[in-house]
Design a protein that fits this description.
Blueprint (H helix, E strand, L loop, with lengths): L7 E15 L3 H5 L2 E12 L1 H6 L8 H13 L2 E2 L2 H13 L6 E9 L7 E9 L1
Parallel strand pairs: 1-3
Antiparallel strand pairs: 1-2, 2-4, 4-5
Helix pairs in contact: 3-4
């Protein structure tokens, strides 16, 4: 979705840096590791734009707090699973019509800055 439909807003949460248990090796199971979450959300913002009313806008702070709580409060074997669970949390908001979530695991591979998994959903 490179171009937005008229009336749709795109909200991006960039480089949300969190710590969680992620992986399958003994060290990964015992120690929290950094993950970096990027989220893009599309929602119909016509009412928010027209009325300049916070009640008509998608509350990205609420969504972000839910993502933080989920990442920091759970354990994950796979980046794919973590990414899907975060995408499900975002899509649980009825106003969201499209979302993309990318989770990076810094230094997961030797000689690489990070490894990431991206998933998207729409309704």
């Amino acid at each position: 979705m490179s171009r937005l439909e008229p009336g749709l807003a795109r909200i991006r949460v960039k480089d949300l840096r969190l710590r969680t248990y992620i992986g399958i090796n003994d060290d990964e199971i015992r120690n929290r590791q950094d993950v970096v979450v990027n989220v893009t959300v599309h929602y119909p913002a016509g009412a928010a734009v027209a009325g300049n009313d916070i009640q008509q806008a998608l509350n990205y702070r609420t969504i972000t707090k839910a993502l933080i709580g989920h990442v920091e409060g759970n354990r994950f074997a796979l980046l794919e699973r973590l990414t899907q669970e975060l995408l499900d949390l975002v899509m649980a908001h009825p106003d969201v019509c499209h979302a993309e979530v990318e989770v990076d695991k810094p230094h997961a591979l030797r000689f690489a800055d990070s490894v990431s998994v991206s998933l998207a959903a729409h309704r």
